[in-house]
Amino acid sequence: MVRAPFYDKSGLKKGAWSPEEDDTLRVYIEEHGHVNWRSLPKFAGISRCGKSCRLRWTNYLRPGVKRGNYTQQEDDLILKLHQEFGNKWSMIAAKLPGRTDNEIKNHWNTRFKKLAKQNPTSSQLAKEQPCKHESSPTVTSQNTELGAQSGPKFDASVHQILESSPLSPETFSSDSSSLSSNQASASTTTSWFNESSGDFWTEPYQLYVQSNYPDNYMREEEVLSSPSLTFYDMGDMDLFNQVMPTWQENID
DNA sequence: AAGAGCCCCAACCGCCTAGCC
DNA sequence: AGGCTAGGCGGTTGGGGCTCT
């Protein structure tokens, strides 16, 4: 499951954490806090880099960290927040008490790969319907490229789902992703949306939103009133539409 | 039963940003 | 203003466990 422990050139331990190391780190942080991660391992007597300690603490040892089994509310909320924030896992995690960005990221990746695989209609749609981002030449060329590179149907459906994701073009390209480059393509995407017609695209977003979250979750109105709910949120409705039925079935 | 392939997730890596000098 | 450092973030990888054949 995890990498086998080993020591790097500088003598720092890497790979899986032992229970003893966990205890040492937990006890030290509970007693002294974590003012300086870089010097923490030295004072705590752990042969790890500070970064590794921070990660272990935030993702595993920190009190209140929930593990496994996502509730339907959490799944729904992750979907919703991903529409707003894209792959900003830390921002999504901030709205999900007890969940870490790393865990949500893993959950999203594995869950959506699985769902995309289970939903053959999405790959069918990719063939039969023009890509909704077609107005963007850059994205279109990338789609073609990706389609050629990846053979299996599975990949096509995954790509289609992820293309609908806010950051998808850049995320899937070989270039590094950035918000600004996404925002740069906003105008083309928006123009596509404005030109489109049909019930689906005019359906209110609320249709897909459950309003019965506990108070500690982000409230629906908070999401809807968010100024960042712009072009890509509506673009992501495609993703939502494809995945939600399967998602719900799996949960039920 | 056993080998192959896939899934899942902890951990790592590289980059970016904020803060300090 | 520019360089340095530490912390944080998102993407990727490694490998044990699970499922399939």
Automatic annotation (TrEMBL):
Ranges for region Disordered: 116-151
Database matches in Pfam families: Myb_DNA-binding
CDD domains: SANT
Domain HTH myb-type, residue spans: 9-61, 62-116
Bias (Polar residues): 136-147
Listed PROSITE patterns: HTH_MYB (PS51294), MYB_LIKE (PS50090)
Annotated Myb-like domain residues: 9-61, 62-112
Location within or outside the cell: Nucleus
InterPro entries with a match to the protein in the record: Homeodomain-like_sf, Myb_dom, Myb_TF_plants, SANT/Myb
Keywords: DNA-binding, Nucleus
Main location: nucleus
Gene3D superfamilies referenced in this protein's UniProt entry, alphabetically: Homeodomain-like (1.10.10.60)
SUPFAM superfamilies: Homeodomain-like
Protein name, per record: Myb-related protein Myb4-like
Species per Swiss-Prot/TrEMBL record: Prunus mume
